[in-house]
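INTERNAL AUDIT FORM
Audit reference: QA-55
Scope: verify that the stored structure record matches its stored sequence.
Auditor: D.O.
Record contents follow.
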Amino acid sequence: MAAADSEFGEWPLKRLMTEVVGTGTKSAEDMTRAQAMEAMRRILADEPDHTTLGAFWLANRWKHNNAEELAAYADVMAEHVEYAEPEVDPVDCGANYDGKGKTAILGVAAGVTAAAAGTPVVVHSGDRVPTQKQDAYKHVLDELGVRTELEPTESADMVDETGFGFYYQPKFNPAIHALWERRDNMGVRTFVNTIETIANPANASVHLGSFYHLAFAKKMTDTFKESEHHDLHRIVMFQGMEGYDDIRPGYTKVAEWTAGDDDGDFDDFEIETANYGMDFEYDDLGVDEDDVAGDSAEITEAVLSGERTDRFADAVALNAALRIYAREDADSIDEGLEMAREAIDSGAAEAVLEDLRGF
């Protein structure tokens, strides 16, 4: 057995590669929770050399991490997160790290609308995502004149004062932010892309995220359940547009888990936009690919002010409805949709945007 490292333990990344995760697609094994936690502590301490870290990240990508490993990584990350809880309990929307490159970013407008309807919402991201230089929430908020480079306590105050809060990753999650250059040099996603979305800097009890396949939604639910840090009441995951937390036009699969007896219930259902009288397709929500954030900001302002009542307004209202439903402030998407439209029609959503600009 290898000698124990006085600072970390007995499982440097190179040993994990040669004995556990890097032995090939057929023979690779899953790590124990202790091994995964040690690996993450070494990574965040900048202990592995670049080659070994890159190999470890790729081996994890090929092997596919299970929920126990992801929870271990997330729990070590949580040791470095600066949490700031608002007085209200918001919906945590963490699926906006990858950014968008083709269609409008609707989450800001949807979150503001939900907030105006009585459902507080938190979003979080950095400046750019490694390997993908697309636009995210921060860039739309910047275009709208909303401060984004906030200290975590300021973000919590923003939630309490306006109903909508943005948490800036370099401030609340500096250890993950410090990996930016190494991740960017990888050129592909790693498990860090997954765990940063569940940092949950406001310690919300409801998480709204996106997935590509239903099996991944189940894995993420299991990750939260395996985590020793997170204690969520409810998780809602759906197949977002461009991997983002915007509902796809047409058909969208939604998975939900609510804590309760028998370890909670995991269910899934479908949202079909046509059933809500919304006749638009993916390309109908497209924007200028050279100015996604700018176009999205203009659309956001026009929808919240009531100047636009077209497909973008419908899409914003439906996405707001999902946030309202996720927090159980509405019993159905239909009820949430009514609340969202009323928030826009009454001027309440536009007022929240003005409050954000004045924060």
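Auditor finding: record pair retrieved intact. The chain has a mean pLDDT of 91.
Action required: none
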